[in-house]
Amino acid sequence: MREKVITLNRNLNGWLIPALLIPIWVLTYLNLQNVADYIIDDIFGMVSGKHLTETLRFFIFEVPKVMLLLVLIIFGVGILRTYFTPEKTRKILEGKSLFTGNILASLLGTITPFCSCSAIPLFLGFVEAGVPLGVTFSFLIAAPMINEVALILLVGLFGWEVAIIYILTGLSIAILSGWLIGKLGLEKYVAEWVYKIKANHESELDSKIYFSERINAGYESVKEIVGKIWIYIIIGIAVGAGAHGYVPEDFLGALLGKGNWYGVPLAILMGVPMYSNAAGIIPIVSVLIEKGVSLGTALAFMMSVIALSLPEIIILKKVLKWQLITVFVGIVAVGIVIVGFIFNYVM
Amino acid sequence: MEIKVLGTGCAKCKALEKATKEAVEKTGVNATITKVEDIIEIMQFGVMTTPVLVIDGKIVVKGKVPSVDELSKLLTK
Hints:
The complex is a heterodimer of chains A (347) and B (77).
Chain A: H1 2-30, H2 32-43, H3 51-81, H4 86-93, H5 98-111, H6 119-128, H7 133-145, H8 148-158, H9 160-183, H10 211-246, H11 253-256, H12 263-271, H13 278-290, H14 295-307, H15 310-316, H16 322-346
Chain B: E1 2-6, H1 11-27, E2 32-36, H2 39-43, E3 52-55, E4 58-62, H3 68-76
Parallel strand pairs in B: 1-2
Antiparallel strand pairs in B: 1-3, 3-4
Helix pairs in contact in B: 1-3
């Protein structure tokens, strides 16, 4: 009986605080524009329409807006993620046929907790359990490219349409690239020692977890992720705000606009050596579009910065031979080029 | 008590090692801490997220860095 009461209390405590915070969140969010205008026009008494005024207004409005979205969504995703551990994902993917496996792996890649520092143990764990190489790659491509942070920033700064386009094309790239890598039969280009690993699958954590612990996981992921990326977001929005006020419209149109066929490949070439997460790059990309870069080129740039990065390639070099890395980078790059062209010319 | 911190050297792995040391000092338990950085050895534990904390052969934490207080509880359990 006592045990039951305690459990009930824990659940209530877990629910209560978020339930109280959500109305406050909504009120704050709905009034951000008014507050930003009040600060700029009334407190600072700045003249509307001037470069500096609009730059500051953009900054004072966007930073809290994106932060509020981040906190809410990361909290939700943090809770959701307690249901999707890498071990469960691996279990689902074991023995799946190639194409179905690629689709599942890409979808699971978006929701399974993933950090690039865990890329190697995750890769090894998948391969060791008999998840096909191509399916593993679908996961590894989707995981960094499509995540809650990217989604929030895309919705916040570009709107739903672009966010959905980004997710659908990102998923297609992950599914098809992984499928193709699987079809090419590149298993021999995985470092030999990888296949010698024998893992012990019995040492699992006890799986019973209270809902209050899931809520705690939500708080923890807010603390961890927001703690890590807030500075990138502020810098990204500051750069964005500066360009918003000062760089002339269509400044980049000549180089990276719709009319230039080489805009997309150029954007990808510029994107690979740049290493940033979604948090740092998306605010900057939002400005690129405003200054005349076409949507396809901007999407290609964003995807290549996030999905293809030198540090990740260096990490993967531990387990893959260079032939396989070349194929992987090549296929993903071609996929991104196609996405870029489709949006520049078809849409 | 035998404590192992598994991790290939990412920032979180170092944080877990540091927090574990603090927790051991704080609780005063008699423990040896070893850092396992070899990926092949790490994989023997069947984990896919690092860092991992292993106490007497049992995985107690994986993929995150608990606070020193939480670690102390795990150590004295």
